[in-house]
Fold this sequence. Notes:
The chain is mainly alpha-helical. It has 17 helices and no strands. α8 packs antiparallel against α9. It is globular, with a radius of gyration of 20 Å. The N terminus and C terminus are likely disordered.
Amino acid sequence: MKLRILACLLLTCNPFLGQLLAQNLHTSPLKQLLNQAKTDTTRILLMADLSASYRYSQPDSALWYARQGAGLAEQLRYAKGEGRCLTQLGFSLSEKGDLVSALSELLHAQGLNRLAQDPLGLAQSLQAIGYLYITFPDARQASNYLFQAKALYDSTHTINPDAVQTMADIGYAYRYQNQLNLANKYQQRAYQLALQLPKTSESAWGDPLPFILRELGLLAEKSGQLEQGIRYLKQAKALALATNNRQVYTRTCNSLATIFQKKHQLDSALYYAKQALTTAQQTGLTRGILRNSQLAAQLFKANQQPDSALKYMELMQVANYSLFNQTHQTVRVHKSG
């Protein structure tokens, strides 16, 4: 935890330094292991982990490794490897905004993981399906899958980042249902467990703490504690940058922009909205582009800058068309298949 705090302090003083530090610590070692792998089954499992290591920072790279691994596993009829890779494929597709394809791949992954009798792979696919259902949104269905994942993680009697993230996801689902006491209960528990995680136990999925801090910030804001919410969100933003978690970084900047919008501090709101939008564009997070271009347009309109507002409205329309087109094409393919 001391290293995390130091990273936050450094980033506060020098944001550019954050770009230098911003890397998933697991990616390079996994690539080395992939180059040294002696068997195809080992390569497939490593490609699933490599996909996971990229999913919060470079979704296109995450998609590539997941597809390569899944294709090889299908050829070898290696259900465990295919299930692990399809879980990562589904998660990455959801980050790109293709929710229909994401659910299809994740449900397929769940079946393969059951067939392979792979408890960890099954827990991961159930967790990913639960998280996706929050996006739809269907928080009750999300909770159903997330509690199944939690039960599998609990059966191992060990604390690991994936289990902690599942706990945080359950809190996230309760927040969507506006059950704030339960949401806070699970986030606080996840927070305490995240602080206890030894560095050596971190999985390719990354550190759950930035996500948890963002959720605690949003819960504080929903409870009327705006300043406490801002403090949590700024911690989440700094740690997300330090760990190259661009998904949480984008969403946290959006949350900060929204809070400052409520406080009628339009300059601060615009600052964070632009940061969120830029990161979403650089990362290819289509839903993030849509959400933040819409917010920026609203803020420029409120600030009596109609030309800038129009520019961001046009960007929002392009992102909206892209999302609609992805979903329409996917549904059409499923119907014809």
